[in-house]
Write a structure and sequence with these properties.
The protein has 15 helices and 13 strands. With 375 residues, the protein is an alpha/beta fold.
Length: 375
């Protein structure tokens, strides 16, 4: 049995694929299914080591990106998309997988186009309330449509094919680290912790406003900050300048990227998590932590804003829209949550009510069921 994953471009598209692949392997072993081979089609492997660890073979297929803003690259990427569709059709005709799982994003389009042309079954997953263009296009053909938010149902024609599964989360993130986080991360257990994550690439706007309030934050809190690889050196330099004469400057702990275990430990230690409103919402919910969400203002179809308000309706999060993100408001909202244990408990309960831990397994079982019937 051959199962092809299509997606990529960002961690929000890539990591749920890894979660489903892990679940597929576990379900196949449990049901004594042999020779299940996994493939990943995209324009870039994103994390080649993780693909290898999950026993997924990478198939490079060019893909063009259509940006929502003016760029000359949009014109040239039209031709890249046509070329990618041709390459994908040849590759899939040779491989002829039993099923294709699409996670959305521009990188998934060539493989999904080829699957539709070759009449290969497709299952898709949509993480956002407002589905992306690729998922909306392939939705009419897909055998099953898995959703993280029930509000996304209205965008798809075939309601009988829809399942509200929640978001596939990697096994390592579902497992709470057994280690004591304060000693393991060399944190002061008497000082509350704030964890700041901007997605796998960081978030420049959040970083800029955070550094402006850092002298006040470290007076009261420890801050673990995933800056993103591209922003780390700038943030480190700015923090050194801003905190040079500030007591407790060691309480600010920037890192370019937190590996799964480090992230789990940081979340376990944290009282509050500050984040964008993409796929990180689902990880925060699994951790059962209060959050302050700052939706990306230029997200396509404003989907992060929609995601944030849907999640906040559970009581799990407070929202600051990016246009309103000013240092005084930023600090006052953080401080208000950190100083209110009753509010924290209510937010934790809201997060736990939103969390779904079995999404990857549900999708894996559907993939195996449909693939087993494919001629």
């Amino acid at each position: 049995m051959r199962i092809l994953f299509a997606g990529g471009g960002t961690g929000g598209h890539f990591y749920p694929i890894i979660a489903v692949a892990e679940a597929l392997t576990a379900v196949a072993e449990k049901e004594h299914l042999e020779d299940v081979k996994l493939y990943y089609a995209s324009d870039d492997p994103y994390d080649a080591d993780l693909l290898a660890q999950t026993h997924i073979s990478f198939i490079k297929i060019p893909a063009g990106k259509q940006r929502s803003y003016f760029s000359f690259r949009n014109f040239f990427d039209i031709f890249k998309t046509f070329y990618g569709c041709a390459v994908a059709t040849v590759r899939l005709a040779v491989l002829y997988p039993d099923i294709v799982f699409g996670k959305g994003g521009y990188a998934s389009f060539p493989a999904l186009f080829a699957a539709r042309l070759l009449r290969i079954p497709v299952v898709i997953h949509e993480s956002d309330i407002v589905p992306g263009r690729v998922n909306r296009w392939i939705g009419d053909y897909a055998a099953k449509i898995a959703l993280s938010y029930p509000e996304a149902m209205k965008y798809f024609k075939h309601q009988d094919r829809i399942a509200e599964t929640g978001q596939p989360i990697r096994k390592a993130l579902l497992e709470t680290p057994g280690d004591e986080p304060f000693s393991t991360l060399s944190l002061d257990e008497n000082v509350p912790v704030i964890l700041v994550i901007g997605g796998s690439q960081g978030a420049e706007k959040i970083n800029e406003d955070l550094i402006d309030i850092m002298p006040r934050l470290v007076e009261h809190y420890q801050v673990i900050h995933q800056t993103g690889e591209g922003n780390f050196e700038w943030m480190k330099k700015r923090a050194t300048e801003m905190l040079a004469a500030i007591p407790h400057r060691e309480r600010y702990r920037p890192a370019p990227f937190l590996e799964v275990r480090e992230l789990g430990l940081a979340a376990k230690a944290a009282t509050l998590i500050i984040s964008r409103a993409g796929s990180s919402i689902f990880e925060i919910a699994i951790w059962g932590k209060p959050s302050l969400l700052i939706p990306l203002a230029i997200a396509h179809d404003d989907h992060q804003r929609e995601n944030a308000y849907s999640y906040a309706r559970t009581g799990a999060a407070t929202i600051i829209e990016e246009a309103n993100l000013k240092p005084e408001l930023f600090f006052s909202v953080i401080h208000a949550i950190m100083q209110n244990p009753e509010k924290q408990r209510a937010m934790e309960a809201g997060a736990r009510s939103f969390a779904k831990t079995d999404a990857a397994e549900k999708i894996a079982k559907a993939l195996l069921s449909i693939a087993s019937k494919h001629d």
